[in-house]
Batch of 3 targets.
Target 1
Amino acid sequence: MKKSTLMHKMGVSIGTLSYLSLCISGAVFAQEATEEETVERIQVTGSNIRGANLEGSQPLTVLTSEDIARTGASTISELMRTVTQARGGVGTFDTTQSGATSTSTPPGQAAASLRGIGPSSTLTLVNGRRIAASSFASGTENFFDINSIPASAVERVEILATGASAIYGADAVAGVINYILKNDYEGLELQTNYENTTNSNDHGAFNVQMLWGKNFDNGSNLTAFFDYYDRKEIRATDFSQTRDPILTNGYSYLPKNTPNIYFRSTQSGDEIGAPNCATELTTTEFGEEICAYYGNEDDFFETPLETLSGGLTYTLELDDLTWRTDVLMSRTESTSFSTPAPINQVDDREGAWIGVDALDVFDDETRNFLLDEIYIDPFDTVAGRELDGFRYDARFGTPRTVDIETDAIRLVSSVIGYINDWEWEAGALYSRSESDQIASAGIYNRYRYTAAAHGELCSNGTIAQYDASTDTLSCSGGELLAAYNPFLQGDAQNDATLALAQAQPTRAGTSEVFGIDAKINGELTQWNGNPVMLAAGVEFRREEIIDDPSIEARARAENDYLVDVFGFGSSASAADRNQAGIFAELLVPINDQVDLSLAGRYDDYNDFGSTFNPKVGLTYRPIDNLVLRGSWSTAFRAPSLTQAGVQLRTTNAQFDCSANAAVSQLFCENEGRIRSANVLELGNPALRAEESEALSVGLAYSPTENTTITLDFWQFDHEDIVDTNMTDVLARSIDDVTLRHCGVIPEGSQGISFDEDLCLDHPDRDENGDFLLDANGDRVFTFIEDSNGLIITDDGANLTEILAEWDRVIQPRVVDLPLFRDHIILLDNTGTQELKGLDWNITHDIELESSVVELGFSGTHYLEYERNRPGSDEIESLAGQFRYPETIANFELFYVAEDWYVGTYVFFTSSYQDDIIRLRAREIDELIDNGVITEENQERDISSWTTVTLSAGYYFDNAELRLTVDNLFDRDAPVAYGTARGFDAFNHDPYGTNYTLSFSYYFD
């Protein structure tokens, strides 16, 4: 179909003005309806009342298909980057933040979040009804994977960025994003897109789309679509800005391929780099010469992604009935990568053991030098032998790699009819998302690997049996292999032995939603000669979710909570839920200028109780072209199915050393940085629903026919947020003995796992640090106690004194209380947050003789974003802090002629503070030495970022050609030292200039 009229080409203005036109026309709607009975009774997101002027009481952002085309977005994930309400903070994520082992941003998936509150607090709808969440949660937050919606099938996107639980029930805390699919189409459209960066590496993405529709003689229409998208990987090493580490001192002690060797094997001591280190040795703050590792060499910004989707909409008009059925199907395949896994001891302590024979790969002089520098000690092997050896630090050479496949299907069938002047609708929904992932590379079984390194692995992959009486090893069904040597590189047989230790843990997940609903809509009565409109309905929904990792990826109590593989987390959960709701809305015209809207919804859940959420809206039109609006509502989010059903989640939890002074002193060497620890998360049957109050006050003003101004103040008070809080558990463990454990935490208990050495006796030292000897010349042993003789697991123990004693007796390199692994913590209602801000949107069209100039300026400004700090009652202000810019804005300027258009988008993100406080001391010292910060003022701002996008298109008789060039002037991402990547991937990207070329052909 040719875009034959100017108004069809005015997509940006039409999309921006669509909701305002509803506002200012509502006052005369009733009169127009009587004069012209063919007026369509439309329904907008945020209301169940069709054809009413409820839009005036709430702000709504609309993106049309033309808007989507002009941005050049090939995926919904790309599109949401252009929406100011979805930018800023860490709620919205895509594959840029996904790693192979990430449970916070599941591999290969993406989510949209409003106001940065989190993806589970933004309700996702398709054609006004729910869709199944991803079976793999973001942390423990369930979300909808927007990668499964093809952008080509979307007619428009309606975004309501305020609480909407009174209309839709749970999850609409921050608002609703409603993706409305194309229907009632006639003809055939084929489109192909190609996008790439101007970088010398190939980052190409190819997209082909088809849209077909036909009207039939029986009054029906069938619209079908098909979409295929294929994107290549993008790596950090592809760009000069991210090829090298942002800070030399941001290294890891765990190198690939060539281990670092411990000087002292029995305690964490100094290390020395292997003589065959592939890079120049790095000098540490302790004066060591080590082989260092930087994560950027294995960092993937975009992972390979391939999606295939399709669907259809069938609409049949039968007298007073309209039957509509929607089918949406998609298959997504992707591969995600994470840095190579650390090699630890079998019990997951740092510093794996290796036999002294491993040094035989070096020449005699080097070997003898190393033997003189390191301590050789006995250690126990997996098979039960005792060998002499030493400890080393290393990681595997292959990135952890996970292949993911996701199949999704959604079927909705509904009937709309009329009884007199009342409209009724009934519908049924079934939606299912099924994901499977397999670790295809870089994951190794801890037992087989350790056996291989100690010469105890058989050729069939089993561990040899040891006969202590004969001091021999034997294999059943295989031959004993030579020991794998981590210091030997490029040897085929050595590599083949390592390959036998590879594991391929899997994860399977299913999420299903079944729902039925029915509602009515019509005029209830008259008030002052104006109709009082009512919408009411009922809904029943059943949800079920299963997340089932393979046994080798699970932590099990009978195995001391050890996962069988190194460096791989998983989440086992299963839950189902029934929910029933009843809702009603009233639109009451107080007079010709004032409308009052009331809404309320009661929901009952079979697993956690019931809730009622009201909404009140007021619209005032003092003059025809001005609308003043305000609304107040409450919203809630029930604990997600993953949170309700998590059985045991193996993950890596962060704790904030800057949030609590005592935590910083005892566990962080008085530093303020973020640290992490391996934890096991458990579900909590006592979880409460998250609750929120939302307030919105604003105006919509149209001083001329071609000018629109909207301004809205919004506020959210969000309470009882569900999360885990490692910082808080550490803080509480200081005084609560029930949370302190030495070694593995017993089954059924929770708390912090301390290194069991804290509870054992050790050789004592004198004031000079020398070992104390008794009269016979033997070492004197002592426990790590406080001044009252209490050890760390005793009630009333003084942890500050225990730390001092640990430092005196053990003389560790890092002076903090040593944590072990697998701290067990419960999900909990951890805190509150309060947000306030402004949204604005200004558009103006300048009509020329045969063309139009379109201007637009929109944005979001955070006046306040406050929440309690983890593990503390202190309230922190996030607005203007790391990853939370205060202002995000878009400007657009387009010249639209009859057959072509050209224009620009300008995207602005304001500056905000870098995360300097959470860097290591050695990294802060480097910044001071480089003049980035000063000793007195250890703060810096990440620069604001402004990029320009060029968009142009030409309409032929039956075709369209479009070109979009993002970051036209090739602006580098602002430098951020608070992240190892060197830039903030949530708010910026390092891709430089990239382009999208699109061609569409329309068949008559």
Target 2
Amino acid sequence: MTIPSQFDPKAVETKWYDYWMKNNYFHSEPDSRTPYTIVIPPPNVTGVLHMGHMLNNTIQDVLIRRARLRGFNACWVPGTDHASIATEAKVVAKLKTEGINKADLSREEFLGHAWEWTHKYGGVILDQLKKLGASCDWERTKFTMDPDMSAAVIKSFVDLYNKGLIYRGYRMVNWDPEAKTTLSDEEVIYEERQGKLYHIKYQIEGTQDYITVATTRPETILGDTAICINPNDERYTHLKGKKAIVPIVNRVIPIIFDEYVDMEFGTGALKVTPAHDVNDKELGNKHNLEIIDIFNEDATLNSYGLHYAGKDRFVVRDEIATELKELGNLEKVETHLNKVGTSERTKAVIEPRLSDQWFLKMEDLVKPAIKAVLETEDVKLYPSRFNNTYRHWLENIRDWNISRQLWWGHQIPAYYYGDTKEDFVVANTPEAALELAKEKTGNAALTITDLKQDPDALDTWFSAWLWPMSVFDGVVNPDNEEFKYYYPTNDLVTGPDILFFWVARMIMAGYEFSGEKPFTNVYLTGLVRDNQRRKMSKSLGNSPDPLDLIEKFGADGVRVGLLLSASAGNDIMFDEELCNQGKGFTNKIWNAFRLIKGWEVADIEQPEYAKKAIAWYEAKLNKTLLEIDDHFEKYRISDALMAIYKLVWDDFCSWFLEMIKPGYQQPIDGATFAKAIEMLESNLKLLHPFMPFLTEEIWQHIAERSTKEALIVSTWPVAKPVDEKLLTDFDHAAEVIAGIRTIRKDKNIPFRETIELKIVNSENVSDSFDSIVTKLGNVTAVEYITEKINGALTFRVKSNEYFIPVTGAVNIEEEIAKLEEELKYNQGFLKSVQSKLNNEKFMAGAPEKVVANERQKEADALAKIATLQQSLESLR
């Protein structure tokens, strides 16, 4: 097989991915092996690959490929999420361009458009993951709206309702006026914004006096039903029992007293609008106040808005301020910085709104999830610092609002049979609901047409929290073979931003529906940011297209570039140079392989230096393998890659191949060549999870392989005992070789010119690597001596002095002059450092790290001076 001079990622990636797919290496079926299971965090069905997906799925692929090499039955389940809010918003926008209003469509008609959109754009992101090399079990691809997945969602709702954990309540919720749906607290993002504080005067009924109230939302005065004052506020004691008149609407409202009011904020008087503020609602309940909702579902004003009806809330804010000023009721306006809740999906400003919604009680569900992570550690978070975030969220949890006013999603299985909101039953199917309704009402004449299903859909997370179970049909059919084999899964890789949204809820669902945890380890990745620390986004234009990066640097180069800086939980400052570094690494490995394959093999005796090099590299490989396995055990994926990177680049390419390389136009012995190939193959196994395409290409070039011998299904190396002395001796030898090379460079002694090396062996240094020193330093002989010699160049390694007798190419007088000048400079530097260390004021005031740094400078200078003095002695 001809080896190309350059590595071509484009040709290689398509070839080997097709080969892996053709031979079904990614597919898993239950068997006698131990399973290793990962479920993908399902991306939005109509989404496209971004840098966050690239990072997350590369890590998953590394874990699954390594597990496959280690002999586990590796199963990586891919899939997509229906993403109710995001997908419905896209479909609504698309219909709008066609002149179609959602409100003019029936639910069935709209869902037809939604499915059409999903079939057209859905799955694009999964195809893009294949370009990255993701070795998912594509035969198991799931979609949260698949019939079996939907059945799991409906069954879980019915089961929880029958346990008394789901209820319907009229509550204050977070309303997204753009998506026209409620949101959970976790889907609201709070942003600091510069706004205004309006001081509005309310006339006291029957007097010419006024009370001033400060508000950031003057438009809501149209829904005011009281003014509240702290009973301890002496400024307003005279207003007890009085009433005020709301400007513009002229509504007479009571002045109430409650310690809830902060006397220090604004004027100390609070306008109460129970329909539009959660705290006002609690005051309204406590003081039996009227509730007046002034907004439509799109946050325009309704008929309570009088002449502002139909106008947007922010338009009204400015117009009502103008009217209040004209009426003499606007005392002043101040700038004010406050936190504004916005929708995570649509970015619209959230409107608190009273609404009938479905809720899930969390008080009992959360207990096993807290215990599993924070007490028994049955589920471990990496890095563990996220335990504190997890604890805070779960210990302060509120009931989960699980209903959404959307059509795209799982329709709530509640069926109404009467005229009140209490006349409903909950069932898995309309037929089952009819039987329950007949039983509940005693009316045997009821028919399916008498039932009306609740129009709301369930929160997308309500299907996502079942994901590790539902992908194996573990909710509807928990006794099936696959669920019992693959569940609980092993590792979950996701972002910390959905630690509560998804991770915590999956743990709750796991214990609630299966009695077991859903996974054992959670690896939390950081966010991918640009080099200005900004989060990558389309709106900022700072996010490269991952497919463009793969086109430019190759999938392996991009994977390496991302992972070298991707420590768990820490954000990545992405720069394309990282991918270029990854590309450089692929070229380095490819060229090393070509070098080996380019050697002529002959039936000759194996030299001593080759034997020693092989023994050393085997020891180095085994030691590094132990480090790599430890890094994986602790989910330090970036550290594992860096250890492999150094092993291959420094130890294999820069040292091992140089040590065994035959002389110019000389052959290599068969035993050494075979060992070089063996060591290369071990390296490829370690590299494969990170660089699957390059490694498979080289693996298949090395020898003709059957499908059972492909690298993807080979075996992960097993570490053997490490000869530490061998490694220590080599490290010393490497320093000696570096010393020789430095002298050759500094003194212009060409490598082709042989030299002698004499060692004052004060530490009884091992001579085991002398053959390597001889070869790599082009040394004629290594001689161990007891006394220093004069007229030689010298360098030190630890306490050993190495002498290179001077040849005619070196001018002794010039060398002495240069050393004396360098000695003088270092003595001056030492004096300046020691003057600082002898300065009591400096020592008393300087930070500990600064002092330590100065002491290190002193030590380094003293060592350098000693070396220079010895070098001068040897030349004089």
Target 3
Amino acid sequence: MNLVVVESPAKAKTINKYLGSGYKVLASFGHVRDLPAKDGSVLPDQDFEMLWEVDAASAKRVKDIADAVKTSDAVYLATDPDREGEAISWHVLDLLKKKKVIGAKPVKRVVFNAITKKAVLDAMAHPRDIDEPLVDAYLARRALDYLVGFNLSPVLWRKLPGARSAGRVQSVALRLVCDRESEIERFVSEEYWNISALLKTPRGDVFEARLASADGKRLAARAIGDGDRAGRLKDLLEGASYVVDSVEAKPTKRNPSPPFTTSTLQQAASSKLGFSASRTMQVAQKLYEGIDLGGETVGLITYMRTDGVQMAGEAIDAARRAIGHQFGERYVPEKPRFYATKAKNAQEAHEAIRPTDFTRTPEQMRRFLDGDMLKLYDLVWKRGIASQMASAELERTTVEITAKNGGETAGLRATGSVIRFDGFIAAYTDQKEDGDAPDEDDEDGRLPEINARESLGKEKVNATQHFTEPPPRYSEASLIKKMEELGIGRPSTYAATLATLRDREYVVIDKRKLIPEPKGRLVTAFLESFFTRYVEYDFTASLEEKLDQISAGDLNWKDVLREFWTNFFAQIEDTKELRVTNVLDALNEILAPLVFPKREDGSDPRICQVCGTGKLSLKLGKYGAFVGCSNYPDCNFTRQLSSDGNDAEAAASNEPQSLGRDPMTGEEITLRSGRFGPYVQRGDGKEAKRSSLPKGWTPATIDHEKAVALLSLPRDIGQHPETGKMISSGLGRYGPFLLHDGKYANLESIEDVFSVGLNRAVAVLADKAAGGGKGRGRTAAAALKELGNHPEGGAVTVRDGRYGPYVNWGKVNATLPKGKDPQAITLEEAIPLLAERAGKVSTKPAKAAPKAKAKAAAADGEADAAPAARRKAAAKPAGAKATAAKTAGAKAKPAAKAKKKDAS
């Protein structure tokens, strides 16, 4: 009997079928150990010794693996084919050696890029040893991220209250978003005019031509900068005669793009499907690990964490055969296509993302896949097959026209293109994807028949005014593209990095655009001022290059750590002498457009408009930064920071804005701004009714109707049919809620507070009472599947929670293992999970959580760890969580030991 260790239980089941009865396949469930989320887990003074920890769940799995090793003839480590997968195999082997169960048994590493029978059997036939340089690169990355998180984040907490954390890659990604916002704020719009003429051929066909030259000079883009010149040129064309100088038709070709890499898949899924980066990776993981195709579980796509753009030779041959069958032989190019990546620091260690079998068309897979899986598979299949198809053949026509008016002349140009052969476009076209400029060919329409030297009639002349626009904010897709171009991060980190920025409330996503929150801009400004080197794009990219050199065996990983730590530690020590006034002076200067937006009357935006003599400046308080007057306490003016200059300006006046009168009391309702944000108020004095604006509502959107609705809360919905007691809805510290008989349940949105009816309210309260929710206001997740009754009584169900699917029995919730399909789990599999979870609900006194902030730093030290850390935090005893919630500083999310590899 041979033992095979993989990461995912879903893979274990499939691979066991492929290998047969001579093999036993066990899952490690991702990482089996990690650095404890506390200071001192990496010891620079002891040659960067790393102190690893195995949690209880992982210890049980390692024991199962060790027991299986004792009765095995050989051990095959078959974790994922990347740096993280290599590290998991190394961790497993190291633990097995410490348990002294390996002995003289052969231990081999096998990797496969797709979960198909052929790929797995080929890998088993060609084993190798663990790649030590690849493991060294993992250790270096893990240590670097840990050291940055645990040393830089505390500096932020001391010098910039309200900041959550900093990370090696996270902070640089945040800087990109903030720098783009600064570009937008500094942008000065410029006027320009476009002039065109609608012309008619002798055959009666009308087409448009644009002004291309005037006054004997070719016009550059946006060359006509004022209305006077535009008017003069329009007058010239109005009275001109038009003659065609030349008609030139040129054949052109468009070649297909290469198959997907991790980043290009995330970009395309964002622009075409509206998927976030994390959602894309979740769905891709399922397609990679395997789908049940009528009794046989098969991986539908190759490994989805890659920056390689090549396909294996057999895959190229299969794609060419499928092209001939699906589209015809004309669509098969004479020679196969080969691609080279353009991404900086690309390792190209693996294939591009492609279907494992091109004969499995999206239409054939429709009945086996849910909506999102089908959409993503369709995208991968089409891009993969298009990459090996013939070029599209187009004909681009350019018509040059002369306009004469007396002694003045001007030149016009009309362009058009026609697709003569669609080629790869028949399968997939990638122009106008998120973050890309539109393809100019797509802007050209088809021109009518036009002949050289013929005269044209004038139908109409148009002169349109335009203004230049600032660069667009980043979307998730365009930010990933920029990070890849700069060489920042790696395919496996992009989604987790973006998730961390959202979780830390450093950015908010509005209409798929990333907008930096004031908190995020403060952190970036602080790091740019006092840790410049560590948020520089080139420095971060060069560090990635060194990590790649380590993985290639060209650098010693501890030499890289020593070089980094010497300078970094010195910088940390220097900040101990940094005074808060130094910090505020730097932030006032860098963030002037945000903190002191220009006023409509042109007055100095730093002069307090309440007292008229004080100077406004950033202040740091318990809950973060705000703007205050230098004449405090004589002048009590304060206002919060706002990413919306209009809101900030409105607040700066400190004048309440009247919204009308309350229809019931007749009191005036006003919109005001306080230290903790905007709010509405009815009446005056200490007894005045007030309500903060809920999340997502801005002062600019508040009208009389909304203000009245907020001030009328709580809202009585109706009497509970069983208790006869009133159910009400309201807005509290933890968001919108329902209240009945002293018990709360959360509502999904503020709109629900005003619209929820009695029947739904009863259902939400019943669901909360069933035990599925945690905390004061969270409602229980709806059951996805009934598994049956527990041996000790009570129903066992599968539910989908905030951090993923889990099984529920009474008050016990157990997270499903990574990769486990919630629809596939059985009662027999669920009971051990519940038993293990129930054993952790200790009756011992709970410890407080004074180190909650330090744990947040650990999570942000390496973005990959964040989702796993949340799973870990969810497994802590309820008592400990309750205690931690009362502890000062416990607002930082518990983050911790990433025991499982992040699926996104």
